C-alpha cells in the first residue's frame, strides 16, 4: 500500500439511523460544508453521519466518533485503500465505520480509540495530521 496522507478532523461525530421513509433532515442539508454530512437511504434505513451536535433528535444515534479523512482527490482506479486502512486498524484492535465520497475515503473511529488508531496508521507508514 502506498503511503497516504490522513487528516484527523476536529470535533465529534455521530452515526445515526432513521426510519427508511423518514425525510432527509433539512437542517443537515443547508450547512456550510465545513463538516462532513452523509445521508444514505436504503430499503431498511436512512443512515446519517454528521457532527454529533447536529444528529437528529428522533434518530437512534451513537455519538463519540472521530473522523479521519484520506487526503484526496483519489483516482477511481486506486484499489485497496479501505482494505489496507481497515486491516491496519483491525491489527491494532480499532473498530471503524467507513464511507467514501467522490473525492476520497473517510474512516470514523471511536474517540477512545483515536490515539491508538493514529499510532497504528503512522506505524504503517502513513502521514497522519492530528490536532
Automatic annotation (TrEMBL):
<feature type="domain" description="A9CJY8-like N-terminal">
    <location>
        <begin position="11"/>
        <end position="57"/>
    </location>
</feature>
<dbReference type="InterPro" id="IPR027795">
    <property type="entry name" value="CASTOR_ACT_dom"/>
</dbReference>
<dbReference type="InterPro" id="IPR045865">
    <property type="entry name" value="ACT-like_dom_sf"/>
</dbReference>
<dbReference type="InterPro" id="IPR016540">
    <property type="entry name" value="UCP008459"/>
</dbReference>
<protein>
    <submittedName>
        <fullName>ACT domain-containing protein</fullName>
    </submittedName>
</protein>
<dbReference type="InterPro" id="IPR049447">
    <property type="entry name" value="A9CJY8-like_N"/>
</dbReference>
<dbReference type="InterPro" id="IPR051719">
    <property type="entry name" value="CASTOR_mTORC1"/>
</dbReference>
<dbReference type="Pfam" id="PF13840">
    <property type="entry name" value="ACT_7"/>
</dbReference>
<feature type="domain" description="CASTOR ACT">
    <location>
        <begin position="61"/>
        <end position="123"/>
    </location>
</feature>
<dbReference type="Pfam" id="PF21631">
    <property type="entry name" value="A9CJY8-like_N"/>
</dbReference>
